[in-house]
Design goal:
Elements: E1 4-7, E2 10-13, E3 18-24, E4 33-39, E5 46-54, E6 59-64, E7 72-77, E8 82-87, E9 96-103, E10 115-116, E11 120-125
Parallel strand pairs: 2-11
Antiparallel strand pairs: 1-3, 3-8, 4-5, 4-9, 5-6, 7-8, 9-10, 9-11
Length: 126
Amino acid sequence: QVQLVESGGGLVQAGGSLRLSCAASGRTFSTYAMTWFRQAPGKEREFVAAIWRDTMWSGLSTNYADSVKGRFTISRDNAKNTVYLQMNSLKPEDTAVYYCAASPRYSTKQSEYDYWGQGTQVTVSS
């Protein structure tokens, strides 16, 4: 069982930055793929970024949605059981509730994730 708690959301002007955190419980945190999704008003939840240990080369791999590449950075600190999402050059279209999720295997599909946080609101003003 994994419990996830997000923090760090808020109101920021366009061009600004925020760092989201997702604290996880559970001894097996380091083995889980950790992913950020977001859901804007009136839209479906979408994939934002993921970080996982790639068994092919035993290193950390990351993947980003095209809409956030070059602006967002996902990272993790296994000692703190925490995953981060550094968001720079924020745009009004980044406004959404951001959720972190955990799965034993990497996927961009939210149906593959068993564990979810409660979400944190990010609002970017123009």
